[in-house]
Amino acid sequence: MKTKDLFLASALTLENKFYDLNYIKKWIKVQNNNVNVNINKIDFKDLKGWNFYDEYSILKHETSKFFSIEGIDIKTNWGQVSNWQQPIINQPEIGYLGFITKEFDGVLYFLLQAKIEPGNVNYVQLSPTLQATKSNYTQVHKGKTPNYLNYFTNATKNQIILDQLQSEQGARFLRKRNRNIIIKIEEDIKIEDNFIWLTLGQIKLLMQEDNLINMDTRTVISGISIDFDFNANFNSNNVFLNSSNKDKPLFSFDELIQFITNRKCFYDLEVSSISLSKMKNWIIEKDCIKHVENKYFKIIAAQVSIENREVMQWTQPMVEPSQEGICAFVCKKINNVIHFIVQAKLEAGNFDIIELAPTVQCLTGNYRTDGHESLPFLKYVLNAKENQIIFDTLQSEEGGRFYREQNRNLLIMSDDNLSNELPENYIWMTLNQINTFIKYNNYFNIQARSLIAAISYI
Q1: pTM of the shown model
Q2: Residue 134 pLDDT
């Protein structure tokens, strides 16, 4: 069976030959109950191995590995604010986010890990088989090697069925990317206690609940390309495939490329390094780096104890949000095909100035205040009727760097009254077109990919 057909069969399978959904949810609870977790905020002086250097210019590990917290100064002609300063995570390493898959009875199964990250709202979330930075898998932390690492480092060309470089959160990471990879094996392997086989359909169904599927799982499966036409009917929270596989997009692929290219050429993004202690409107206190108005986010220090990790005790800096955010795609049927309103968005840490984002993305400010009233489509999303909402859950950001950050994720189906005319930095795209762009580096941001991953085909 071809890879795309395997993906489709898995996406349409809810009857796992091993476990049903009720068992899986109970299994997640058992995983939570079986592991002692203790996360405490601490003062910066109590961090072990982490220090401020050069008169509070930078916060980094004594090995200069893992990541650092740095200050940046941003100048741009995008948006209403042309210059600002902020802390940002600098983690230049490219890590692995990878799934082992295996075919059972003609259906592709994904090996997921019940993984506890220090910043997770509910501790255990389902992560990829392998989720490791370069510092982790080269054992800078002097801990154990991550489970199943050798399957990825030794993967042959024929085993790799998805392999992409994808960006991380552009407002919090400086040009950060990870290798999103899926490999398919034939041999039987030992399944460790906190790992489980699930179909793609089960993963997507679990994503309809709050904070069960972690960000890294969502970004990897967003890259899975299935040939279908999103000329679909909506029923409650489910999207049904159309077997005709016809696409009638409002804009051609070349027109979309031109839309993106024009904005990358027009908008400037100048990012320069600045000392943390010299950032305007940010102050360093004994236990946090925060904005003077307590807006956006804080840099905090955490003491972590988790039993089933490669290293069971450590300290580290983390990013703590000041409020819950919102990410939403607004969709509409045009030419009898569902189109998504996609936004060209500039963020300080973007690798190539502009990335394509959800229709609405508010992460670093309070979307109900902070002057967001004029943001295109925000009111439309917040005032959506119940029968327009296809998907509405709280989804976590990556818990290894972000402390209890969750954002409301929505897919909204508009009515015919919504105009086809869009503001300057917005454009209509079909799901087929979105899937094509996701194959390539640095086109769709991680918030958009997370929402695309949530689309169910059942």
Answers
A1: 0.93
A2: 80
Calpha distance 451→343 (Å, rounded):
14
- Phi–psi pair at 434, nearest 5 degrees: -60, -45
Token match 């689309």: residue?
455
User: Residue 109 is which amino acid?
Assistant: Y
* pLDDT digit string, tens, across residues 213-255: 999 999 999 999 876 543 344 333 444 344 334 578 999 999 9
Are 402 and 319 within 8 A, CB to CB? yes
DSSP string covering 64-104: S-S-EEEEEEEEESSSS--EEEEEEEE----EEEEEEEEEE
Residues in CB range of 228: below 8 A, 6 or more apart: 8, 241, 242, 243, 245, 432, 457
Compute the average pLDDT of residues 282-297: 97
Could you tell me how far CA 358 lies from the centroid of its own chain?
12
Q: Which domains does the chain have, with CATH numbers?
A: 3-35+93-228 (3.90.79.40), 39-91+273-321 (no CATH), 253-270+324-453 (3.90.79.40)
Handedness of CA 373, 282, 442, 93 (dihedral sign): negative
CB 289 within 8 A of CB 87: yes
CA-CA distance, 185 to 188, in Å (whole number)? 8
Question: Which ranges of 116-167 would DSSP assign to H, the alpha helix?
Answer: 134-137, 149-153
Query: Quick one: tokens of 428?
Result: 């209509």
Among left, alpha and beta (phi > 0; psi -120 to 50; other), residue 54 is left
What 3-state DSSP class applies to 171? coil
For 92-151, the pLDDT digits (tens) are 989 999 999 999 999 999 999 999 999 999 899 999 999 988 877 676 655 678 999 999
Backbone angles phi and psi of 452, in degrees to 5? -65, -40
Contact of 172 with 89, CB cutoff 8 Å = yes
| 114, containing H or E segment | strand 107-116
